[in-house]
Predict the 3D structure of the following.
Amino acid sequence: MNNLLNNVLNHINEGIVILDTNLEIYAWNRYMEVITGISRTTAKNNNIATILPAFNKNYFKKSMNDVINSGCKMFFSAAMHRNLLDSKEYFNLKISSLESENTKFLLLEFTNVTNQFVQIKRLKEYVSELSTVNKKLKEKEKVIKKLAYYDELTGVANRTLFYELAHRFMDNAKRNNSILGLMFIDVDDFKNINDTYGHEVGDKVLIQVADILKKATRKNDVVARHGGDEFLILLPFIQNSSNYKIIATRIINTKNSIIDNEGNKINISLSMGISFYPTDGNDIDKLIAKADKAMYIAKGRRGRDNYCCSACICP
Amino acid sequence: MPNKDIKFDILRELFNISVGKAASMLSEIIDKRIILNVPNIDVFDKENGKFNIYDYFPETLDGTLMVSSICFQEKLSGKANLIFPAEKMRTFINLCSNEEQCEYEGQSFTDVDFDIIKEIGNIILNAIIGEIGNGLDFRLNYTLPEVKVFTKIDFSRDIENNGYDHIYILYITFLIDDTEIEGAVIVDLTLNSLNELKKRLKQIEDDLYE
């Protein structure tokens, strides 16, 4: 090989190996010397598989023969052939055939793609970190949303969510000429429970009352904590205003069990008032005021667990 | 069309031999069980109208396509494209490189992924075109594959406007471990190449009857 060609090969910034048809090394450029630590004089005239043991694999031998015989070109990726040069770096390999003065040669080009691997690894780590942060943010967003719309103690809707849904149900009732019911519920003698058993037990009572109301209502009804020991229930799409009795009875029946606090049996009683759109007004605050009034009438009655409908109030 | 059927049978046989060899080589490289099959072949002449990919591709070959293409010259001139659905390629690439799939990887591909597809395309397309060359006694000169991602419509336009007259469509099933991928190989040929191919197929057919 003349000097000029040798010089060119030595200046190419990739590994170049030229083999004869016996797969013996004819040329080995300087880049190959640097990346393998094997000098040109050591490599030359040796079989490629002796110098680079990875080439002992059948598929490399077959591929090199195919390239010599059929003139095809072969490509081997660093991702699927990690130890081609027994180096920590990654190389793609291209094999093609050359012909000079009726003699065939094989040209092996090793391209260093280590930077791609390093960058992709960094990128994957970065994306993985972002993905973790994103997951955490989503979880926090859920918590924030819950805090914004749900009562922290009982887990039912808070006033903000109640009003958002109530306006939606009211608009819907106006559009469809349907009845919207609103129930106002108050725990009787709650102050007494707090004073007798303490606020911690009082909180447990409120949690259980919220559970009772959720169990006793329909899937689309909305149970909300109005404040203190007061709860509101929105009853959309009711067929007949007298149907509220079914819900009220279900609440009383569900509540039948006595709340047990470490051996202490606490009897609770609920007073319920109910109002309706359109008969009691066409905005939510009016319905709340009417239901509240009805609830106080129920509370004033004798016995436990009374309910009263706004229609029963004298104007 | 008994004659056409025999020619198709000869071609299908040639293709199945070649993909079998490619499967065996790939299997050795990645050390996993690989089965490749060409269950069916179709041919389309552009003289007969516009090539509509939807008439030829199976439903599973939908969405974004990953296409690995090589060009070949000499007695046969044309272009061969190996086509797989991009959505299946993530699993496929990870199986080939022994990497575990990350949940966020999806259908985004890196240069390293493209190199893997380039190698797979190189092995399969070389085997197919090489086998046609060997079977028909033609020596062909061909390029290394280039890998591109297409939408189905863009790929259909690419085939329509590439200047070749005839299209062979090979339906290909690829089984790697327990993952099955349906793909296709489209071989575009010039009219001269098709005539050369037909001539050689006729000779092989005549030899069968002798």
Remarks:
- Residues 121-148 of chain A form one domain.
- The interface with chain B takes residues 57-59, 62-63, 66, 70-81, 92, 94, 113, 116-117, 120, 123-124, 127-128, 131 of chain A (CB under 8 Å).
- Chain A has eleven helices and twelve strands.
